[in-house]
Amino acid sequence: MKIIVLSDNISISSDLETEHGLSIYLETVIYKCLLDTGASDLLIRNAEKLNIDLSVVDYVFISHGHADHIGGLSYFLEKNSMAKVIISSNALTQKFFSQRNGMHQISVETDFSKYYDRFIFVHKELELDNDIHIYANTSNVYAKPLGNKSLFKENTAGELIPDDFNHELILSAGTDKLFVFTGCAHHGLLNILQTVKEKSTVPIRWVMGGFHLLDAKNGNVYENDNQIADIATTLKNKYPLTELITGHCTGEKTFELLKKTLEFNLIHFFTGYKTELFENKAV
Fold it and tell me: SS3 for 251?
């Protein structure tokens, strides 16, 4: 697998733009995928600079309905006339809001109905090309991220209620070793990995995405140091050979706390980050 980050909060290159969004290009010998589309058309511009032809992408996977992950989809669909869009059946039928920095909407108002013949709506799970599996989270063994407390959705009466993330999906790819994409991991990284572990006997070798473990800011407090250390210890004990590649909604302080325990198994991604993963490479 070849992986290139097209959209993230940070970049180490002044040539590439950044935003509060996430989009990752994944390519194998069989297919080309886009994992989320960021918040805007930024992924289009960065892809051109990185010499990635988005017009030949086969699949777009949308991890959940928040605008920083689906905001670039309309721009992508104008550029690509063939890709299938894999998305939760709940992602486009709800309005989402965030209370951070004042209550505001974080879902898109775009009408995608003209593209619905290209959409694959997933409720529980789906298998594609034998080695791509899509799952809704089924594990609630571990606590969900405390950052979720500021996220809401609108109910049928127009009232705001806590977001239960019934629009969040997990992607795993691979046959001998699994690559897992978490999106923002609103159900909790450990729950997501537990779900994949229960669905597949193939070992999880790589995990990539945001972990929704936020740093305290503007009076908002989330997981404390001990809670982050406990998450890191559980990851190290249960997934000792798994490489965790994160950015976007994983706080900088949180990353450093996780790094103390996970050491070289934890990697920070950024806009323009590139890596290649080999299934047949010895662990």
Answer: coil
d(CA 44, CA 134) in angstroms, rounded, equals 25
**What does the pLDDT look like over 206-229, one tens digit per residue?**
999 999 999 998 888 999 999 999
Pairing of strands 59-61, 32-35: parallel
Residue 76 in tokens: 């992508």
pTM for the full predicted model: 0.96
Integer CA distances (angstroms), 108 to 72, 95, 126, in order: 10, 8, 25
Question: In this predicted model, what pLDDT tens digit does every residue of 264-273 receive, in sequence order?
Answer: 999 999 999 9
Integer Cα distance of 207 and 163 in angstroms = 24
Inter-CA distances, 117 with 27, 112, 216, Å: 24, 10, 43
Kindly list the distances between the CA atom of residue 41 and the CA atoms of 119, 128, 131, 196, in Å, as whole numbers in the listed order: 20, 27, 29, 31
Whether 7 and 19 have beta carbons less than 8 Å apart is answered as yes
Backbone phi, psi, residue 88, to 5° = -65, 145
Q: Is 39 exposed, middle or buried (0-12, 13-18, 19+ CB in 10 A)?
A: buried
Quote the CA–CA distance of 178 and 270 in Å, as a whole number. 22
Q: What is the mean pLDDT of residues 142-167?
A: 97
- Alpha-carbon 36 to chain mean position: 7
